[in-house]
Design brief:
Blueprint (H helix, E strand, L loop, with lengths): L5 E6 L12 E6 L6 E2 L10 H10 L4 E5 L23 H11 L8 H4 L24 H8 L18 H14 L4 E2 L8 E5 L2 H7 L10 H10 L13 H16 L13 H6 L8
Length: 280
């Protein structure tokens, strides 16, 4: 088991443009001090590319968690986008997305509205939503155990959609891989990136998975994760509190082998769909 000395939580965004107020980054060191927020390098928020380059430059043994889906479903149909592409591993699919997305700052809308457009539900004009509702094995396990209602990558409508963030994130994974292991597609190493689900991390913190928007609730969650209270008080948005909880949860959970060996994670799933860290 690698001994990490730095735990990074990233609350992600797939929004258009170059700077994103929806991205937040927090870092927890070893010990019990509260995670600290990392300010964006410029006004207007982080760029996705800046997060990637900051992480690559971060020294030491790093475990970083990103709040987006690392791959689409594969097992249900034996393909990511049946009839369109032939990738049979997640890293190969990331390269496919990279080759077909020309958006600024690792955006993926060009990919989603290009040749892959028929696979995405973008509203009533696409007909019934049900045929688009494909889920990964991890998401089905999470939903079946009462964890909540994990979203599908092919639903692009509504505030809860995760499609834009996830396909943009796959471009970032393509950039990071090699310098970082991307678990479980790669064996964990001293510098590893994992997929997390914010609601699941909040449940590990003793809550019901609801967003945290005040200091008292944040400190309660941190205490459940073995962390000191967040210093300074002040007003935090739920992107920032998510990143803080993610960093604390990674530090709290990473040494427990069960999160690296969930019972549903087969070799095939580890190559194609991956798994969300912290979901058994």
């Amino acid at each position: 088991m690698p001994e990490f000395d730095c735990f990074v939580g990233v609350d992600w965004s797939g929004a258009k443009g170059v700077r994103h107020k929806g991205i937040a980054v927090a870092v927890a060191e070893t010990g019990a001090d509260a995670p600290r927020l990392v300010p964006p390098p410029a006004r207007g928020g982080w760029a996705r590319a800046e997060v990637a380059e900051w992480l690559l430059a971060l020294p030491g043994k790093v475990l970083a968690g990103f709040d987006f889906s690392f791959a689409p479903p594969f097992v249900d149909k034996g393909a990511y986008l049946p009839g369109l592409e032939t990738a049979d591993t997640a890293p190969a699919f990331w390269r496919h997305v990279e080759a077909h997305a020309g958006d600024a700052d690792y955006g993926a809308l060009g990919f989603m509205t290009g040749a892959a457009r028929p696979y995405f539900w973008m509203g009533a004009a696409d007909g019934p939503k049900a045929p688009f509702m494909r889920f990964r094995q991890c998401e089905m396990a999470f939903n079946a155990r009462g964890g909540g209602k994990a979203a599908t990558l092919f639903d692009c409508v509504g505030a809860a959609q995760v499609a834009k963030a996830s396909f943009a994130g796959m471009r970032v994974l393509n950039r990071l891989r090699g310098e970082f292991a991307v678990w479980p597609f790669d064996p964990r190493a001293e510098r590893t990136v994992v997929e997390i689900y914010g609601r699941a991390m909040l449940r590990h913190a003793g809550g019901r998975g609801l967003k945290i928007r005040d200091g008292a609730a944040l400190d309660t969650a941190l205490a459940a994760l073995g962390s000191a209270p967040f210093p300074g008080g002040g007003q935090l948005d739920d992107n920032q509190t998510d990143a803080i909880v993610i960093a604390a949860a990674l530090r709290h959970l990473h040494a427990d082998p069960r999160w690296w060996q969930p019972p549903g994670l087969t070799d095939k799933i580890a190559k194609t769909e991956g798994w969300t860290f912290g979901i058994g």
